[in-house]
Inverse folding.
């Protein structure tokens, strides 16, 4: 069960966030704020207490708070973002995490790691080796997990921004898979729900207690998840999609 979530209100500088899809246009700040509020409501509907951090205009991508920490049941790992304009966001989260965790660790240079590359499956954590997360960062997280009686393994990847851009563990052995992860041997043991190419963005869903939160407008994915017997809440994330962000990116859940 998740009890807590941490989110950060988008700042006006959001419109200058990193994107690989400039053709989608810049996010509309007002809409983004409204979508963020609806996202918080959805988390609350799932039964978590949401800690809302103030906007930080110095960092355009700072509402994607998932990337700056990995929150396990035993400890929190403050990460070291791999994107130059995001370096420094991690400092802002440390004080907040102290309210929840006695044990806080840090990824240190030459390691880089972003939380979007880390997928929790019980006490095992899959870590994507992306442009943002390197082998040294993954090794540091694996060592910390092992120290606390958990495990981790690295996953080679080429196409996606983050591991969870294309993967979501929905509990009950069900894994949502898209793109390069669809046929990956590392995930053979799971019951895989394959996302269609046109709904690729919807791979970034989150299971929060009794519900799966799914981005609005992806009907095939929604039907597939409901078909697996899971309850769905939808939230519109169109403004965050313009910056390659989605549902998992917008919160830390623990
Ligand atoms: C970035 O490129 O860092 C942001 N524009 C999007 C971050 C998305 N975060 C995530 O997938 N965990």
């Amino acid at each position: 069960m998740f009890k807590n979530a941490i989110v950060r209100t988008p700042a006006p500088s959001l419109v200058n966030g990193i994107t690989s899809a400039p053709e989608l246009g810049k996010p509309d700040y007002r809409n983004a704020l409204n979508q963020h509020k609806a996202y918080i409501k959805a988390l609350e509907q799932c039964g978590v207490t949401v800690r809302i951090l103030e906007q930080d205009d110095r960092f355009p991508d700072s509402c994607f708070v998932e990337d700056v920490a990995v929150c396990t049941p035993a400890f929190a790992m403050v990460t070291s973002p791999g994107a130059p304009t995001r370096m420094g966001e991690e400092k802002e989260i440390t004080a907040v995490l102290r309210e929840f965790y006695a044990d806080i660790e840090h990824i240190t240079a030459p390691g880089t790691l972003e939380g979007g590359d880390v997928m929790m499956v019980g006490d095992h954590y899959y870590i994507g080796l992306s442009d943002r997360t390197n082998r040294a960062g993954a090794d540091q997280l694996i060592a910390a997990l092992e120290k606390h009686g958990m495990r981790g393994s690295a996953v080679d990847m080429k196409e996606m921004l983050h591991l969870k851009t294309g993967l979501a563990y929905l509990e009950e052995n069900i894994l949502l898979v898209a793109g390069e992860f669809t046929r990956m041997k590392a995930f053979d043991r799971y019951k895989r729900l394959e996302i269609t190419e046109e709904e690729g963005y919807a791979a970034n869903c989150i299971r929060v207690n009794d519900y799966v939160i799914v981005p609005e407008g992806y009907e095939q994915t929604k039907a597939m998840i409901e078909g697996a017997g899971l309850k769905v809440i939808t939230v519109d994330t169109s403004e965050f999609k313009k910056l390659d962000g989605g549902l998992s990116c917008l919160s830390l859940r623990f």
